[in-house]
Specification:
CATH topology of the largest domain: UDP-N-acetylmuramoyl-L-alanine:D-glutamate ligase
CATH architecture of the largest domain: 3-Layer(aba) Sandwich
CATH class of the largest domain: Alpha Beta
Largest sheet: 7 strands, mixed
Number of helices: 15
Strand content: 25-35%
Distance between the termini: 60 Å
Helix content: 25-40%
Number of strands: 23
CATH superfamily of the largest domain: Mur-like, catalytic domain
Oligomer: single chain
Strand order of the largest sheet: 8-7-9-6-12-13-14
Structural class: alpha/beta
Number of domains: 3
Shape: globular
Low-confidence stretches: none
Mean pLDDT: 94
Length: 475
């Protein structure tokens, strides 16, 4: 049986094993901001999380070693879900009898008690929609707490600690920890849930869409009867999940029978405008400095949640108009030699397709080069090979990098970039498989025009390609 967790007043020093991940690093920073002594360890860290940890004075020890928890024993250890049971530091923590928690349980232990928990989940759009809800609430003076899986411009980081009654948190269906294989979002005591989408993902732990749906059904089942579920009901897979929920369900989307819908959709260079409707009642004319139909859905879902939380249409409209965005979501990293370099986190085929369409809308008349790194546990596998052909075909040219850590995968399961390139070329899209970042930079530098957009899609560091490409173009 795990050791008893100390009461909050008895905890002074918290140590994080695998501190540099987005969620773990954000929680570490939240605790440091609240005055706890926080240390951590990881095999490596890169911006923006490494910058955030350094800014809060959190010592990050290199690698994993038993001495990190035995030399100066902490009052509590938080173990990330990327940590395996055989990790020497985690093993030492357990063998030493130190109290330990998973990341989700630590969030609940320190921050969720007494709060109205708003959990934003789904295959796509979690980070943006969590940031939207938090930003709208903050702009309206509700002073929420927010924990998001990215860096939100309006918070200057990935979290916000407020004194208001709401805690808005991004939740996903991935495993909690090696000692707790339940989905993370089940630990967040949701009173309001926003379900943005439901598609197959996380091929390393789920075998089918049905298993994913079952995980979301578990979340829906723990929302209290007097709570609320806001769901993107245009998708059959989402409707199947929320069917029979005890809590009240508010559907949103582009078509009936969704309770929340949009009309008068218009894109221009600086953003998107649309009219939001609740049933037959016109809610408001809304504008947001983002592009893409997927972001319109994100905004509509956020508007529905904020209405449920008591905000007026005017407060919602003002919050959306002022939204500062999220790093690595259609983020312009710079322009050199006529090439605009854009960074986006897209990795699932649906997100890739929608991101390319959004950049088309915001950069009309430009040649679009889509640069894609297969890096996630799903995108590295062959599961979506044909879907990537379809998703990437909206670009003028496609450059596919090597599969990240391909040596870890069975060749029979591994994505074949050459096959994706062949499929794109067969459909008339210029495409190249360039395994190394240096080869990609060389190709863009050698072939670019004066009105090109290089859309770089990866959920990781990708060898620092953004700044390296801009530097090469500058020279």
């Amino acid at each position: 049986m795990p050791p008893e967790i100390p009461p909050l007043e008895a905890i002074r020093h918290v140590h994080f094993i695998a501190v540099a991940g987005t969620g773990m690093g954000s929680l570490a920073c939240m605790l440091a901001d609240r005055g706890f002594r926080v240390t951590g360890s990881d095999v490596g860290a890169y911006p923006p999380m490494s910058d955030q940890l350094a800014r809060l004075g959190i010592e990050v020890l290199k690698g994993f070693s038993p001495e990190h928890v035995t030399a100066d024993p902490p009052d509590l250890v938080v173990i990330g879900n990327a940590v395996r049971r055989e990790n020497p530091e985690a093993s030492a923590a357990l063998e030493s009898g130190l109290p330990y928690l998973s990341f989700p349980d630590a969030v609940h232990h320190f921050f969720l008690r007494g709060k109205h928990s708003v959990v934003v989940t789904g295959t796509h759009g979690k980070t943006t929609t969590t940031s939207l809800i938090g930003s709208i609430l903050a702009h309206a003076g509700r002073d929420p707490s927010v924990l998001v899986g990215g860096v939100a411009a309006d918070f200057g980081g990935s979290f916000r600690i407020g004194e208001g009654g709401h805690f808005v948190i991004e939740g996903d269906e991935y495993d909690t920890a090696f000692f707790d294989k339940t989905p993370k979002f089940l630990h967040y005591a949701p009173r309001t849930v926003l379900l943005t989408s439901c598609e197959f993902d996380h091929a390393d732990i789920y075998d089918s869409l049905e298993q994913i749906q079952d995980a979301f059904r578990e979340l829906v089942a723990i929302v209290p009867a007097d709570g609320c579920i806001v769901a993107a009901t245009d998708a059959d897979s989402v409707r199947e999940v929320v069917d029979g929920a005890a809590a009240r369900v508010q559907g949103y989307g582009f078509r009936e029978p969704a309770d929340w819908r949009v009309s008068d959709l218009a894109f221009d260079a600086s953003g998107t405008s649309f009219t939001a409707w609740r049933g037959t009642r016109r809610l408001a004319q809304l504008r947001v400095p983002m592009h893409g139909r997927h972001n319109v859905e994100n905004c509509l879902g956020a508007a529905a949640v904020c209405t449920e939380l008591g905000l007026s249409p005017d407060e919602i409209a003002a919050g959306l108009a002022a939204f500062g965005g999220v790093k690595r979501r259609q983020e312009v990293r710079g322009s050199e030699a006529g090439v605009t370099v854009i960074d986006d986190f897209a990795h699932h085929p649906t997100a890739v397709r929608e991101t390319i369409a959004a950049i088309r809308a915001s950069h009309a008349g430009h040649r679009l080069i889509a640069i894609f790194e297969p890096r996630t546990n799903t995108s590295r596998r062959r599961w979506f090979e044909q879907q990537y052909v379809e998703a990437l075909s909206g670009a003028d040219e496609v450059l596919i990098a090597g599969v990240y850590r391909e040596e870890d995968l069975d060749p029979g399961d591994r994505l074949r970039p050459e096959q994706v390139v062949e499929g794109l070329r067969s459909g008339g899209t210029a495409a190249h498989y360039l395994p190394d970042v240096d080869d990609i930079i060389e190709h863009v530098t050698r072939t670019h025009g004066e009105r090109d957009v290089a859309l770089i899609m990866s959920n990781g560091g990708f060898g620092g390609i953004w700044d390296r490409l801009l530097g090469r173009l500058r020279r």
